[in-house]
Hints:
There is one protein chain. This protein is an all-alpha fold. It is built from two helices and no strands. The chain is rod-shaped and about 110 Å long. 0% of the residues are buried.
Amino acid sequence: MYGRSGSYNRVGSGDVERGGRGYSDTNANILEQQNNERIYELSEQVARLKGLTIDIGNEVREQNSLLDQMGDGFMNTRDMLQGSLRRIGVMLESGGSKHMCYMVSFVVFVVVFLYWMMTYKGTSGA
Length: 126
């Protein structure tokens, strides 16, 4: 009698252990599947971020080249203005008041012309 109940208890406890192990295996498989899904989602997000950083890098390189071109343009404009100012200085030193009157009248004409363009042409509705 004791032998049977003892062997029964061992068999019963083995069934519980196998059932527990089966439950544990199922739970582990579910957790593994959830981990795999999250890893896949993370890899998709990493791929999107990688694409975004590549696009940002390309944009930065393009903007830097545009800035370099603008800098070159400004330097050319500065050189032209310095040359013009130098020539105006030479003209004023050599020619006197006649050239100064021409220059002032030209500037006044340009300002009046721009004022006229802004007021009358701006209200025509074109």
